[in-house]
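Can you give me the bound-state structure? Components:
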Amino acid sequence: MKLKIAVLSGDGIGPEVTNQAIKILKAIEQVFSHQFEFQKALVGAIAIDSTGNPLPVETLKLCSESDAVLFGAIGDPKYDNNPDAKVRPEQGLLRLRKELGLFANIRPIKAFDSLIEKSPLKRNIIEGTDMVIFRELTGGIYFGEKKLSDDGKIASDLCEYSQLEIERIAHLAFKSAQIRRKKLTLVDKANVLETSRLWRRVVTNLAQEYPDVLLDFLFVDNAAMQMILNPRQFDVILTENLFGDIISDEGSVIGGSIGLLASASIGHHNAMFEPIHGSYPQAKGKNIANPIAAILSAAMLLEHFGLKQESEVVHKAVEEALEMNIVTPDLNVVRSFSTDYVGDFITTIILNGTENSYCNLENISLGKSSLI
Ligand code: IPM
Ligand code: MN
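Here's the bound-state model for the whole set.
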């Protein structure tokens, strides 16, 4: 398969982790004889620094002409601490989502067996957790009208949703539930918010088209509690933009590290793949950030284009690295490896397979591999 992939590695640890995802895609390209063409472009703080714009015109053009976008991370403390900043790196990501029409953000959350002890939550709570969050990504309070009074003392953000915006993501969530455990939970705040009541009406109507899926509802405050009290109860969660942002970070605790969570953002014409973690500026350039979320985002890219076997090969290689404890410091403070090292290790497994490359792997884990 031929794929044109725009690479927007962005800020902080973005470039380091995205490089590992590219290595993995190149290994898959080689093993399965595909043709992937990568083209880099600027986004975020780095784009502001060199062009004044967090989403330069050329970047948007490249993304809309590509089959997929591989995204790193965005954000820089020099903007976070300045509430008066007129331009912010995050605007680049938000505009990109809006301009490309990426309305559905899909965030799988799984408890990896080999990492259960790494989670601050107890084994008996998280074991076997396997859920996916469908977060609406181009509407709601993120994109509603924003106001600040002339005297700077009153501010507001409008939360608005249309039936159409709800339906298009709800269809995707129902379809996903159909091929999973057939349960869909709508997370909202329908006891208070009019938009949430619209979500309930629209999703309840749509449920008639998916009679094999069990639909239930949870208020977001209760959902936040249930996520860490009994996460196994969830299969597919459907929710609006801000609630999805918050509960997906919460869900990352189940996996043991936010450095493991991948996401896909899907629209009718474009698709983007990005780790859910931020730019982690404290780790920038230190070669310590966990590349697995970026690598699993590349796996979601492969799956999106129907390359299921390829995606499984990446997942297997990642699991192998986790089982052999070839992980970055967020997952093992005593014996940890660098970002590059973990990326190289996973690449080697993809290229050689575990059985055939046993010696090579042993060398890598002893720090002797020529790859490092
Ligand atoms: C995310 C991030 C973004 C969001 C930020 C960087 C704008 O937190 O992708 O979850 O809030 O959507
Ligand atoms: Mn977030």
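A couple of observations. Residues 74-75, 90, 93-94, 245, 276 surround 3-isopropylmalic acid (ligand 1) (CB under 6 Å). The longest strand covers residues 2-10.
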